[in-house]
Amino acid sequence: MHLLPSRSLQLSRLFSLLSQGERLAHRCAAQQSRLMTAEGNTAYAKFFKQQSRQELFHARVFDSTVLWLANGKAAAQCKHFNTYTKNIDRALDQGALAESVLATQVILESIGKLVLEGIDVRMERQSFGLKRIRATILAQEAKHHEFGQSELLTLMRNTNISITTMQHLSQHYLDLANKMFDELAPIFDDLGADIDSYKKRLGNEVPIALRANCA
Ligand SMILES: [Fe+2]
Ligand SMILES: [Fe+2]
């Protein structure tokens, strides 16, 4: 694929951020697996363990992409992503499983999926290569996200957390995600991505019962 140098730099910044998201998901899923093992839920523990391994693989693929695109000189920082990370770490420290699944498997996975699908269309158009690996990553992300969506209500029942609390948490993480998109707008603009559409679609990825206006 031939890209303008500025576009190549922005794309590598985006992959650097995606890699940070993958490492967060890797760490989070490993901790979720430990929490589930402690609760004797071996099926969930196994799913999270496998997810954790897959996220590390995704992070390594994206790290290589950054190296390839910009010789690894494109490390990007996102203040609101760091806040998002701290929130997930706090939830995990408190053993708040339902919150961690909402923040990671439901919302963080959706952010990754939206961005990756957006880039994927462009990569395909420009014969970027890595077709099979891109398809594998997207399929694995879809499974993580489906798990989060389908199991979240069960986890809420098991942990006795109220719908109202989860609705507030859902709004809180969506607000943070929207701030991330706004903070990264210059990168998305340069790549021709539509962040308003990302924000709208992200809100629809949260289960209906957890949307704030359902209170
Ligand atoms: Fe991933
Ligand atoms: Fe994932």
Overview features:
single chain, 215 residues, mainly alpha, Ferritin, 8 helices, globular, binds fe (ii) ion
Report on this model:
It is a single chain. With 215 residues, this protein is mainly alpha-helical. The chain has one domain: Ferritin (Up-down Bundle). Helices cover 80% and strands 0% of the residues. It is built from eight helices and no strands. Helix 1 packs antiparallel against helix 2. The chain is globular and about 50 Å long. It starts with a helix and ends in a 12-residue tail after the last helix. The structure holds fe (ii) ion (2 copies). One fe (ii) ion binds next to helix 1 and helix 2.
Oligomer: single chain
**Helical fraction:** over 70%
Strand content: under 5%
What is the overall pLDDT average? 88
- Named at the architecture level, the CATH assignment is Up-down Bundle
The separation of the N and C termini measures 48 Å
Radius of gyration: 17 Å
General shape: globular
How many helical elements? 8
The structure class reads mainly alpha
Bound molecules: fe (ii) ion
Could you give a quick summary of the protein structure above?
With 215 residues, the chain is mainly α. The protein has helices at 5-38, 42-70, 79-93, 97-125, 131-159, 163-183, 185-190, 195-203.
